[in-house]
Amino acid sequence: MTTTTPYAAAAADRSRTHTWHSRPEPTPEILGMSGLEILQACIKGALPEASIMSTLGFRLVEAEEGFVVFEGDPGDHLLNPMGTVHGGFLATLLDSALGSAVMSRLPAATTYTTVQLGAHMIRPVLAQTPTLRCEGTALHVGRTTATAEARVVGAEDGKLYAHGTTTCVVLRP
Predict the structure, then answer these.
(1) Angle at Cα 131 formed by Cα 163 and Cα 61, nearest 5°?
(2) Angle between helices 35-44 and 87-103 in degrees, nearest 10
(3) Region of 158 on the Ramachandran plot (φ > 0 left; ψ -120 to 50 alpha; else beta)
(4) One-character DSSP codes across 99-114
(5) What are 83-136's pLDDT values in tens digits?
(6) Contact 63, 104 (CB under 8 A)
(7) Most buried of 47, 118, 132, 136, CB within 10 angstroms?
(8) For residue 55, which phi and psi values (nearest 5 degrees)?
């Protein structure tokens, strides 16, 4: 019995590996850092980046109070059955920028978690789409809740690919 596949065989199978560093234990020094200080330490390599970043291929490149920038590289390892980059890549990029924008305004020992994520995909992302830039801005950071907005644009051409909003719960010690 012979089996056939409904697709043409690729030139060669591909593989992708990545390496990440475990999150450090929350030492008194880390617990004493503000959200912005933690984000900036990640950019400098003094603290490890979140492991989801190496898994999906994006990175934090800028952080200041209330504003962050991530950059991500699409590729064929992120394709959905339709042959475009899975929307989950854009949603994760948005969620990272939105949450980090909120985090950048939190004092030491205060955390957050996303309770609502709204994402609007404007145009398809293809495997060969150049680097994407996601800018997140905190709009409101209160005692118990926070909101933020973000946009994913082409790093080279500025074309809008997606935008989104979040509501986060602020978890104070």
Answers:
(1) 80
(2) 120
(3) left
(4) HHHHHTTPPTT-EEEE
(5) 999 999 999 999 999 999 999 999 999 999 999 999 999 999 999 999 999 999
(6) yes
(7) 136
(8) -60, -45
